[in-house]
Amino acid sequence: MKRAHEFSGSQKRKLKIQRVANAIEKTHKISEFFSSNISQLHIHNNTGVDTQSVSRGGLSSAQGFGNLWSRLSKTLKTHEQSTHHKECMMVWHDKRSGNSIDLQSSKLIQEEQTYWRAVLFRLLNIIQFLAERNLALRGTNEKFGDTRNGNFLGEVELIAKFDPVLSEHVRCAKSHELSDHYLSNRIQNELIELLAKSIRDKIISKVLASKYYSIILDCTPDISHTDQLSIVLRGVEFKEGFGAESFEHFVEFLDVYDTTGKGLFDSIINFLSKYGIAIEDCRGQGYNSGSNMRGKNHGVQACFLEVNKKAAYMPCTSHRLNLVIADAARSSITSISFFGYLQRIYNLFAASTKRWVILKKHVTHFTVKSLPDTRWEAKVEAVKSLRFQTTEILEAIEELERVSLDNRDGFISTECRALAIEVRSWRFLVCLITWYDLLFLINIISKALQSPSICINDQISHIEAGMSFVSQYRHGGVAIAEGKAKELADELEVDRAYPEPRRRKKYVFSATNRQMSQIIRLVKKCFAENFSIHL
Fold first, then answer.
1. Which of 36, 86, 265, 399 could share a disulfide with 303, CB 3.0–4.6 Å?
2. Model pTM score
3. Order of strands, edge to edge, in the sheet holding 312-313?
């Protein structure tokens, strides 16, 4: 290829003309490009305004300027002063500064969403607070400011005094600025259902993650006289860094109308299939000792074992322990009488506020308590008040007797006299010491067996310790109880002797009819003198 100094003069002129022609051609192409597209570049791409729907002229014309680029600076000034350019610049500025209608609408929607999320978050926490403490939500009405509007609205009004979100919400609800304020009883029920579903789903996910599980059932009628089957699932959760940890959760109440073993088993199958829990993964089942539960042929445990042989049945240990104590107490007339006197002492003072004041004047630590009907180990609370405050309770009974005599109340005075005589007896004091020692131990074991985190080894050790204590107490426990009762007997000045059993005596009257008539007249005369003299 030749260099520039190698060309002749004519060749150099031709080369120069060719370069100028190429430059002019490129200039025309650039001019055509900008003339046809400068409107879109300046208006459409920057502002989004439809360039076909506005009048355009000068720089923004679709035809461009052709070869009139010498007037470009003057045309630019004219274009910048045009109404179309100013309108486009205002639109572009609004979009850039965020003042468009769409953006403003989006901000309003976002603020509304944030507001309602904050309100619902507070309402959910109020419902959770009340539910955790087993408190009723609704009252007799739903009026703001009324003391009978229930715990839920009361909590809302209380928090509204310190929280600006709920304060504004309550204000709008009171002034009827909101058609939906989410404080009605229907919304409360829906929020409760949402919380329950969230908790239940979390429990089910834990059960599914643990793979194997045990199921615990109990059936009892509610206040509407409908049998409800409570379902409790138990499993093992593996936590990284902590190892394995057992868990036990109540899941759901099921209304049952067929309480036979087959009917209850069908309800359980429907429950497990509803939440996707495989019955084949069940490794344990625990119920009470009812025939429909533990029946060998037609009980729930028998139906379970027909489907899953690995679902070992374990009767409720705490329930069986309670039955053992109940049967032991009912087998002794002395024990029956002892607990009967405890209940009579409670009924005596609890029937009147004036009598309770007399009791509180003497008793400062443990008040007398009623005996529970089913949970026998809980009777230790009733025994404990008399075990450690025998003297104080006896003084209260004697004072109540004196007050009753002053008020001419023969029924209460007679009841107080009978209870005072029984409490001062050696037999009652020995029973008091014996049953307190037994129930105190049984109560500890029963609560330990009901712990969700207890393992089978701990259960066995607790049961063996209880059996050993009862066995030793059976042989030498009476002597131990008598030794402890001596202190109370000395304090109460009670004769340490058991009452002799009553025997029927046959009296043989050898008196004549005349002598018998004289005896009867003498008895009547004494009764008349001692009883009728005050009439």
1. 265
2. 0.57
3. 243-256, 227-239, 213-221, 282-286, 312-313
